[in-house]
Design goal:
169 residues, 4-stranded antiparallel β-sheet, 1 helix, 11 strands, 4% helix
Length: 169
């Protein structure tokens, strides 16, 4: 009988664990310098039409919208990157780039050096497509620069469509 093979993580720098900010989070497994690659955001891809046609029914979603109008659903075939929580003072960022085949990818990297055990955060910069008030997107990051909302600041809305999509109804 052969030994079961140990699965190699696609996100070796990330450990998923309970978070004091929200539910579960992603934490650095080791000290990381600024610009360190954390992993790709993986999961099922949807078109805008497929997202619009689906009944999400206020369920927790891990949809990330890309600039090419595709969405990646980290809940379907995703990895530990889907557990990066929001902070108004993030230590990580999401960056788009194309692979050799011309497919748009979303990668996460650190903005600053982080220590082993630190929780990893991105700024969700949410867009509320249903006219909901900012109070529907309360932020609990606790940073000194907290905006009180996970919605994108007005200035960042002009930067393009890369966004974490939570309100897709």
């Amino acid at each position: 009988m052969s030994k079961p093979r140990k699965r190699i993580s696609s996100t070796p720098c990330i450990r998923v664990a309970p978070s004091g900010i929200h539910g579960i989070g992603a934490f650095a497994t080791r000290d990381l310098p600024a610009q360190a690659f954390l992993g790709l955001y993986e999961g099922r891809r949807y078109t805008q039409a497929e997202v619009d046609a689906r009944a999400w029914d206020d369920q927790l979603t891990y949809l990330f919208g890309l600039s090419n109008d595709e969405f990646i659903d980290g809940a379907k075939g995703g990895n530990g990157t889907r557990h990066l929580n929001h902070s108004c003072e993030p230590n990580c960022e999401a960056v788009e780039e194309y692979d050799e085949a011309g497919r748009l990818l979303l990668k996460f990297q650190t903005l600053v050096a982080v220590s082993a055990g630190d929780e990893l955060f991105i700024d969700y910069s949410l867009t509320g497509d249903d006219g909901s008030p900012p109070s529907a997107y309360l932020c609990r990051c606790g940073s000194p620069a907290c905006r009180g909302s996970m919605l994108a600041p007005a200035a960042s809305l002009e930067q393009g469509p890369l966004r974490l999509a939570t309100d897709v109804r």
